């Protein structure tokens, strides 16, 4: 699949309100995006056609939040294209080859791609508000390795840090 002949999917997949769906192509067809946007932010599937068959798969999942969110950049970016020029707290990761999105893309199953982006949008914690309000003396641990306690006594550093 090259950028010039890539068909993201056939038809017009539906998204539930208040979400909206956008598609975007970067210059020279280097990156294609499928984006589900809602009031708190957006989930974007980036597809790099020239890298789809390379190690790593050529796809990434990007989150664009209007407010600070767990795991996202702590310094906002102004003028985010995905959020129509708004301030953005960004987070993203490569998906690797053989992921579900790649299978759906090759099958031109646009509704499956969009449904998964909607599911991820609805399942995302978009703000830091309320995450650490239980006990201000206990540090918040977002990633807890197996076999460890998610709560540490005040002042202690986790052994995996």
- Work out the helix count: 2
- Tell how many strands the DSSP assignment holds: 6
The largest beta-sheet arranges its strands as 1-2-3-4-6-5
Strand residue percentage: 15-25%
What is the overall shape? globular
Extract low-pLDDT stretches: 132-145
Instruction: State the end-to-end CA separation.
Output: 42 Å
| CA-atom Rg in angstroms | 18 Å
Structural class: alpha+beta
Mean pLDDT: 80
Helical percentage = 10-25%
Main beta-sheet annotation: 6 strands, antiparallel
**SSE string, helix = H, strand = E?**
EEEEEEHH
Report on this structure:
The structure is a single chain. The chain is α+β, with helices and mostly antiparallel strands. The protein has helices at residues 100-106, 110-122, and strands at residues 20-25, 32-38, 41-47, 59-65, 77-80, 86-94. It has a 6-stranded antiparallel β-sheet, with helices on one face. Strand 5 and strand 6 form a beta hairpin. The longest helix has 13 residues, at 110-122. Residues 132-145 have low confidence and may be disordered.
